[in-house]
Amino acid sequence: MSRRFFALGLLVAAACTTGCAPTSQRVNVAPTPIPRSRPEPIDTCGLKAVSNLVGQPKSAIPVPVTPGLRRVTCSTCVQAQDYNPRRLNIYFDVDTGIIQRLACG
């Protein structure tokens, strides 16, 4: 048993001779964070083309509305949770009729 501890001690000592500095010379340096830019979301539903609709009345939505690629709904209404990245969702306030937000999906 003592041979194992002795051999383990030799291995640790040998490993430390190549890359370990004495305790008094060690410096703790925080790693520098890598700056990461957020990738711009991909516009799969034509959101940028109609982004000026926010704040407009829902009557400003271009016609015809294609049900498969455009969904107009109030912001508090229940809707299906199916996801289609090509579909543009237009949410309006039920009381005022003003478009509040746009989203793909």
Notes on the protein architecture:
- With 105 residues, this protein is of the alpha+beta class.
- The chain has a domain at 48-104: Trypsin Inhibitor V, Chain A.
- It is built from one helix and three strands.
- Strand 2 and strand 3 (99-104) form a beta hairpin.
- The longest helix has 18 residues, at 2-19.
Keywords:
105 residues; alpha+beta; Trypsin Inhibitor V, Chain A; 3 strands; elongated
Low-confidence segments, given as residue ranges, are: none
pLDDT averaged residue by residue: 79
Q: How are helices and strands ordered from N to C?
A: HEEE
Question: How far apart, in Å, are the first and last alpha carbons?
Answer: 65 Å
CATH architecture of the domain at 48-104: 2-Layer Sandwich
> What's the overall geometry?
elongated
**In CATH terms, what is the fold-level topology of the domain at 48-104?**
Trypsin Inhibitor V, Chain A
